[in-house]
């Protein structure tokens, strides 16, 4: 999920009008929208399918979600280097094909439901391919868009990419519930495959952008430079991971209905915050925005922890989404600026690794917390992590002031 003060990159030969910039950005972010729609559709029904239909534990249900994020994590370095060497367009196309294969395996997993272990293994393989595809498309689309509109519009590109991400999740979660109830779980895989093969065809027809020339730093060095910023991102991402993985089972434990709408509330608030505060990072700086975002997120998670009614829980999910909205770009702008232009893809990928790690570990760890302490304690754990992110961001802010002062 950075800012417009990034290092220079190739810009279009002719200056683009603001309307043309927006059009280019939206047309590129649409690829992210398609992939995250394919991710969002099974999100609300997958934990229940593993836990209730296949009969596995809450830990395995959490792992079923987290496999995707682990796969995204291990492929980030390759995604960054692919962007910096073969180009962003080719990276997006390859990611779309992986996501299409994921949809096919999810369809097969549903057909194998009478054989729970086989179904689970196919489902895990599907999630792994989806994670690989997400890594390539998510990072590739951002860098493709920046290549089309110029580095001066980096913040705008990343913000709209995030809007596309969470708008897709907001639509996908309830859509997945409707598809599951009306047509069956198998249809979810087919719909995901159809969406991403469409993305592949559209990407093939899109314009190429030049690869930025220059010395390529090792991924290990890039990772070291962005480590502290990525750690803050990881702390803040635990809240989203907890909601994405366990909100449906949390609602079921309380015997509340319409759990998918809590995901929609999170995503809608996320999109709203990005639209309302699109220029906040430019005006106040990444560190200040990050501190406020983490505080807001912590309040939302604490509401989920103490909720005694679905309305309170939905408000907590919305506040969490509102706070999480600018976490990625606020710290990301500071992180991406730490490397030369020719390594921007690697820097964005390295920074995003921490989001993947947080989402990957949150599922099984939260499952353990559920087994020992109950569902509400998951959100207390996430709130403590968000407060830790506030402390880290304050430390980074003070260090930056001393360095610049």
The chain-level mean pLDDT equals: 85
Helix content: over 70%
CATH superfamily: MFS general substrate transporter like domains
Largest sheet: none
Tell me the series of helices and strands, N- to C-terminal: HHHHHHHHHHHHHHH
The level 1 CATH classification is Mainly Alpha
Backbone structural class: mainly alpha
**N- to C-terminal distance:** 30 Å
Which radius of gyration do the C-alpha atoms yield?
Answer: 20 Å
Strand runs, count: 0
Show unreliable segments. 1-13
Total of domains? 1
InterPro entries: MFS (IPR011701), MFS_dom (IPR020846), MFS_trans_sf (IPR036259), MFS_Transporters (IPR050171), MFS_YhhS-like (IPR023008)
Keywords: Cell inner membrane, Cell membrane, Membrane, Transmembrane, Transmembrane helix, Transport
Pfam families: MFS_1
Subcellular location: Cell inner membrane; Cell membrane
Q: What does this protein look like?
A:
There is one protein chain. The chain is mainly alpha-helical and 405 residues long. The chain has a single domain (18-404), classed as MFS general substrate transporter like domains (Growth Hormone, Chain: A, Up-down Bundle), CATH 1.20.1250.20. The chain is 82% helix and 0% strand. It contains 15 helices and no strands. The chain has helices at 18-43, 46-53, 58-85, 88-111, 116-149, 154-183, 185-204, 219-253, 260-276, 280-284, 286-306, 310-324, 327-336, 344-373, 376-404. It is globular and about 55 Å long. Residues 1-13 have low confidence and may be disordered.
């Amino acid at each position: 999920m950075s800012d417009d003060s990034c290092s220079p990159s190739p810009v279009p030969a002719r200056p683009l009008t603001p309307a043309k910039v927006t059009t280019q950005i939206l047309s590129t972010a649409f690829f992210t929208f398609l992939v995250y729609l394919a991710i969002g559709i099974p999100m609300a029904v997958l934990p229940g399918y593993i836990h209730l239909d296949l009969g596995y534990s809450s830990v395995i249900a959490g792992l079923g979600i987290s496999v995707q994020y682990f796969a995204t994590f291990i492929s980030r370095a390759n995604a960054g280097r692919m962007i910096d060497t073969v180009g962003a367009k080719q990276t997006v196309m390859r990611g779309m094909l992986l996501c299409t294969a994921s949809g096919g395996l999810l369809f097969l997993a549903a057909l194998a439901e009478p054989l729970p272990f086989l179904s689970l293994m196919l489902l895990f393989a599907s999630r792994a391919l989806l994670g690989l595809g997400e890594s390539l498309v998510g990072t590739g689309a951002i860098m493709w868009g920046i290549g089309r509109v110029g580095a001066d519009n980096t913040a705008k590109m990343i913000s709209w990419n995030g809007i596309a991400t969470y708008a897709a999740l907001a639509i996908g979660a309830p859509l997945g519930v409707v598809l599951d109830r009306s047509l069956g779980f198998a249809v979810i895989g087919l719909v995901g495959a159809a969406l991403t093969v469409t993305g592949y065809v559209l990407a093939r027809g899109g314009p190429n952008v030049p690869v930025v020339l220059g010395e390529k730093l090792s991924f290990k060095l890039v990772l070291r430079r962005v480590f502290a910023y990525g750690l803050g991102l990881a702390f803040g991402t635990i809240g989203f991971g907890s909601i994405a993985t366990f909100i449906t089972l949390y609602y079921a434990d309380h015997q509340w209905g319409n759990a998918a709408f809590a995901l929609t509330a999170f995503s809608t608030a996320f999109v709203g915050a990005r639209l309302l505060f699109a220029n906040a990072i430019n005006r106040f700086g990444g560190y200040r925005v990050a501190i406020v975002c983490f505080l807001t997120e912590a309040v939302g998670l604490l509401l989920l922890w103490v909720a005694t009614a679905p309305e309170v829980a939905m408000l907590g999910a919305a506040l969490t989404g509102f706070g999480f909205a600018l976490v990625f770009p606020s710290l990301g702008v500071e992180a991406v600026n730490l490397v030369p232009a020719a390594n921007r893809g690697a820097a964005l990928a390295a920074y995003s690794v921490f989001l993947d790690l947080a989402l990957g570990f949150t599922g099984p760890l939260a499952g353990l917390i559920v087994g020992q302490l109950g569902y509400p304690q998951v959100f207390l754990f996430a709130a403590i992590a968000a407060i830790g992110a506030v402390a880290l961001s304050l430390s980074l802010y003070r260090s930056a002031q001393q360095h610049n002062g």
